Structure formats: structure tokens, C-alpha cells
Amino acid sequence: MERRDLIIQEPKRVGVLPAWLERLMSVGIVSNDPDVVRRQRCVNVGAFVTSANAGSHLVFNSFYDFWGLLPLHVYNAILVVLPLLVPRLHRYGENAGAIALALLLIFAHMLVVWAMGIASDLHVYYTFAGAFLLLIGVQHWRLFLIVFAFCLAALLFALNFAPIDGIISPDDRQLRELLSTHAMVNTITINAIVIFYALSGWRRDMLMVEHLRARSDALIAAVMPAPIAERLKSGEEHIADRIETLSVMFADLVGFTESVHQLPPEEVVDFLDRLVRAFDGLSERFGVEKIKTIGDSYMAAAGFDGRAAEGAIATGRLALAMLDAIGRQPPLGGRAPRLRIGIHCGPATAGVIGDTRFSYDVWGDAVNMAARMESNGEPGKIHVSESFRSLTLDRFEFEDGGTVELKGIGTARSYFLLREKQ
């Protein structure tokens, strides 16, 4: 996968609920804070499962004994409706809905525990107290401890003071056994739903973090060599290296400004983008580091690891491949595009500079000499220095370029790289 594709790629959509269910989970939420939204969505899940739980009891009890359990039906009907109003409270505070749901569980549920007795095991619903940490958030742990303490107190109060058989149909043992079974099944089901939703949200967040990290790594790798990127990510602030023999290459499009003078910007950018991406692919293929592009000039270097000969050979192969690639490009502005390439091997300094828009760059004699070799070269040829030829004489064929006068440097012997030896 290309770095550009990774940068614009959408993160994996794993554990994503259907769109209609996602909208339902977001009812009443007005906050833009991702953490608040996440917790309030958990509140909505809790409110909806509370309503559904009451609804299941309403249906079951109605079939069992409609008239005899009428007060219980009224309670369950109310408890079906009230939790559905909880999402409307989100606008009044990030934990308003969670607190309302907790109060509903603590106080309203005590009524049905008292009515049906602890033999029905309906007090098991107080064990959901721990789940309120998902709704309130660890950053509000003091508020959570208060809610937890109230739920624990309600549970202990019910176990010690609520009548065993309740006050509604106290002699109906079968009803209490069925209610106990129903409560246990609902409890394990609700636990599964809450845990699934919480873990799916956690998984989604983890994938987003991984995606952002991968995108950050891709952006760093796009502007500097991988070893330098690793040093930067490890926390090294000042990166500056001395390379005794670095192979530096400059490639310039000859007559580019004249060719694109009358062309629309889209066509110019499309051509350069296509060409630079092709050069980037070749650089990666031959193990040469792209340093930067300056207008219509492409700069690359190799030998950062200290292997001077290998870096020089890789740079020479890249230059030959770039000449081949430019020859396959369509005409631009009625002219066939041509490259002028210069290469030199010599000492250089490399490092990371800048802050908000930092970059990895190279300076020194190797850079200056390579730039002069390019500017004093010929279109369609690779102009190289004597030091490059010395390092790669056993791998390439050369043509004598004579002596050239280089601005700011003086007289130097030069050669033209022709081809790789068979």
C-alpha cells in the first residue's frame, strides 16, 4: 500500500452497528466531546435495556395472571416509559441521564422488590451498579462511588428488611420461582448486551488509534528515512549526522517552465504528480532515499548507513531507471520531457530541522557538487563526478565528460554514466 493511500484511507469499520441502531443510541445527545458522547450512548443503552426488561416482565406477568398482578403491571408499564425519557436529560449535563437512571434503579426498583419479596430474586438487578462506571466515567469516580454506595445500600436493605414472599400474592411460590428465573435470564442477557456494546466501542476506539498512529508513521516516513523516523519517534529531539561518503543525485526537468507556460494548472500538477510518484516508486525499489522535490527538480541520496559503494550503485541504478521512465512519459506542452541528472559522492551533514513543518535535509560538499554536476550536464544524460565513477567503475560504463568549470567549486573532472555492465 502506498503512503498516500494509507494517509487518506478510512479506518476499519469493525463492530459497527446498523445505521438505524447507531442513530437510536445517539438520541438526545447534543455534546461534541467524544468522551461525553461515548458515555451518554452507554446511558442510552442502559435506558433502553431497562425499558425492555420492564416490558418483558409486563408481558410475562400479564400472561401469568393479568387481574391478580394488576398493580405490578402498572409498575412495569411506568418503568417501560420512564427510562425512554432519560435521553432527553443529556442536554442538562453530561451525567444528568446517568444519575436519573441510577435513581430509577435504586428507588423505583425497591417498590417491586418489596411487593414480590426477596424470594423472587428481583433484587439481583442491583448488581448492575458496577456498570454505572461505563456511564459516568472513571474521571468522575467520586460520583460513581456515591451511586455504587447507594445501590449497595439498597441491596443490603432489601436482603435484610424486605419480606421474603412480598405483599402481592405471597402464597404463590410458582410465581416467585418463575420471576427468579426470569430475573436471572434477563440479568445475564443485559450483562452480555452492555459488555458487548462497551467492548465494541473500545474496539472501535482502539482501531481508530491504530489508524491514526499508522497514518502518523506514514507521514513521518514520507518525509524522512525510516531509521531517522524511528529515532524521532523514540524521543530524540536533535538529529544531526555526519556521513563521510554520501551519494547525492539531482534530477531536473529541462525546459519545463517553457513547456507548461500555456497549460492549465490541473494538467501541470497532474503531470508532476504522476512523474514524482513514479520516481518515488523507483527510489523505494532501489533503496535510495528521496530527500525532496524543489519545483521541477528531484533530489535523492543513498549511503546514510555508511555503505558508500552500495549507496553509489543504488543511486546510479535509480538515475538510469529515471531516464527510462521519463522516456515513457507523454509529451508536455507539445514537447517530450527530458531529464538532466547530476550525481556526486562526498561528505555531507544530514538532520531534521524545523518544528511545525519539520523536514529531513542534507547539506555539504556532496550536495553542492551534485547540484553543479546537474546544472552543467546535458539533457537526457547522467553527469557524474570522478568520486562517483571511482566507487562504481566495476558496475557501470562511463563516457569521459572532460573537465568542467563548476561555479563556487572550480575545475573538476566529470563523466557521463551510460549503462550498467552486463
Q: Would you mind describing this structure in some detail?
A:
The chain is built from 14 helices and eight strands. The protein has 422 residues and is of the alpha+beta class. It folds into two domains: 3-216, no CATH class; 226-420, Alpha-Beta Plaits, CATH 3.30.70. Helix 3 (34-64) packs antiparallel against helix 4 and helix 5 (96-116) runs parallel beside helix 7 (141-161).
Notable characteristics:
single chain; 422 residues; alpha+beta; Alpha-Beta Plaits; 2 domains; eight-stranded mixed beta sheet; 14 helices; 8 strands
Round the mean pLDDT to the nearest integer and report it: 87
Q: Indicate the low-confidence ranges by residue numbers.
A: none
Beta-strand portion reads 15-25%
Element order: H for helix, E for strand: HHHHHHHHHEHHEEHEEHEHEE
Overall geometry: rod-shaped
Cα(first) to Cα(last) distance is 33 Å
Count helical runs: 14
In total, the number of strands is 8
- Rg, nearest Å: 36 Å
Class by alpha and beta content: alpha+beta
Determine the fraction of residues in helical runs and give it as a percent range: 40-55%
Largest sheet: 8 strands, mixed
Number of domains: 2
Please write out the topology.
Elements: H1 3-8, H2 19-25, H3 34-64, H4 70-81, H5 96-116, H6 132-136, H7 141-161, H8 173-223, H9 226-233, E1 240-253, H10 256-259, H11 265-286, E2 289-294, E3 297-302, H12 308-327, E4 339-353, E5 359-363, H13 365-375, E6 382-385, H14 386-392, E7 396-406, E8 410-420
Parallel strand pairs: 4-6
Antiparallel strand pairs: 1-3, 1-4, 2-3, 4-5, 6-8, 7-8
